[in-house]
Amino acid sequence: MRRSVLVDQYPVIQKNQEPPLVQPAQNDKYTKAQARAIIRWLKQNQQEFIMNKNGIEIKSGCDLTSGRIRFPLPVNEPKMVSISITNTSDESVTFVQYKFLRRMRIFSLQDEQSVSSTNTKILNPGDEYNISVTALSSYYGYFPVTIVFEFTRGNSDTREKFLIGRFISAVCNSRLAEDLAPISKYVPYQKNLLRIVTRTEEDGIPPDRSITYSLEQMIPLDKYLPPKHLKDVIRSSLFSRCSIIIMLTLM
């Protein structure tokens, strides 16, 4: 007898078993007021938000377009993604802090020197500093989060603060979802695909058998004149039951 083990699309946590959680770092997210202010600014300045600026470049091994970082996440297995911050300018830049705009429990942030607003990191020209994003989930799904990096440059008199953001997402798919994944890129419906096509239809030459067609195609009908009494009944509007019976008898 052959036994096979099937992977359920939605794993169920067994009794007396708690889902593994990633312990978040302390103070790794903004307050609600700070998050609302950044979101309002982000809606109007998204390109500026994700753009590398003032010589600071932020990269990872899972970069997509438009500031997105996406990586696959196996269920119940931690996944760590490294993000590098490089100073390509000719002056020093201070790495102030980095936080989640709105924290999600499956993500946590780590770095070697625990950079924060009270423990900043100076990036000299050519310096590179790495941070790690760790994700761990017990459920299948799509988990997006936004990270905001804060920097300052200049001295105390001309200090300038700027932000750079990245949209990070972890995708935890089941084996069934991977098997049913699309094999080509989705192409949305386009109206310009419907073009007017001009065509010419020709009657051609009729077959020989249609020339000697023996059946009559048109039968003339004789002129029918209704009887005079029918016209008289109609004119006098005699539509009673007796009149109808008399009219039918005469016909």
Helix content: 10-25%
In the CATH scheme, the class of the domain at 32-172 would be Mainly Beta
What fraction of residues sit in β-strands? 25-35%
Encode the helix/strand succession as letters: HHEEEEEEEEEHHH
**Stretches where pLDDT falls below 50 for ≥5 residues?**
5-26
Sequence of strands across the biggest β-sheet? 2-9-8-4-6
Looking at the overall shape, the CATH architecture of the domain at 32-172 is: Sandwich
Average of pLDDT: 80
CATH topology heading of the domain at 32-172: Immunoglobulin-like
**CATH fourth-tier homologous superfamily of the domain at 32-172:** Immunoglobulins
> What best-fitting shape do the alpha-carbon axes yield?
elongated
Extended strand count: 9
Annotation keywords:
5 helices; elongated; 9 strands; five-stranded mixed sheet; 251 residues; Immunoglobulin-like; alpha+beta; Helicase MOV-10 Ig-like domain-containing protein
